[in-house]
């Protein structure tokens, strides 16, 4: 049972998610155009920054630049949370242009939005409920944009 705002926020990895969103948004500024065209951050877990790269050659090149990338990411994020890089070769999709945020353009189906609303129905404070809903919607959009499956629902963009 939810009794306070603290109960809700303690169950959400808000701080980590906000850092990841900032990293994705500013990736090109952080590493430069050439690297960002061939490499994108996917997630951070247990001190490991997972990166998708366009080719094995880029994975090898970034392996040589690992120290520099980790240092820049940690400085940007204001901590020493990233200790290691892991690379996965895959299709990067359409390159971002400037500060365009394509993940924000990912449409979510009504079923997923209704499920999020239902999960938050016990939050009595309307303003807090709306803030958490916005966070959950953004989280779903980013996961779908990154090609991950969002937990919950039964639609194409919300499979678990």
Please name the CATH topology of the largest domain. GMP Synthetase, Chain A, domain 3
Q: Provide the spatial order of strands within the biggest beta sheet.
A: 1-2-3
How can the largest sheet be summarized? Answer: 3 strands, mixed
Discrete helix count: 7
Give the uncertain stretches in residue-range form.
95-101, 152-160
CATH class value of the largest domain? Alpha Beta
The beta-strand count equals 3
Task: Indicate the overall shape.
Answer: elongated
Percent range of helical residues = 40-55%
Distance between the termini: 24 Å
Gyration radius from CA atoms, angstroms: 17 Å
What are the secondary-structure elements, in order, as H or E? HHHEEHHEHH
For the record, the count of structural domains works out to 2
Strand content: 5-15%
The CATH homologous superfamily name of the largest domain equals DnaA, N-terminal domain
- Structural class label: mainly alpha
CATH architecture of the largest domain: 2-Layer Sandwich
- Kindly state the mean pLDDT as a whole number? 80
Summarize this structure as a short list of keywords or feature phrases:
mainly alpha; 2 domains; 160 residues; 51% helix
Explain the overall architecture.
It is a single chain. This protein has 2 domains: 16-89, DnaA, N-terminal domain (GMP Synthetase, Chain A, domain 3, 2-Layer Sandwich), CATH 3.30.300; 102-158, no CATH class. The chain contains 7 helices and 3 strands, in the order H-H-H-E-E-H-H-E-H-H. The protein has helices spanning 5-10, 14-31, 33-38, 56-64, 66-77, 110-119, 126-145, and strands at residues 39-45, 48-53, 84-89. The protein has a 3-stranded mixed β-sheet with strand order 1-2-3. It starts with a helix and ends in a 15-residue tail after the last helix. Mean pLDDT is 80; it is low at 95-101 and 152-160.
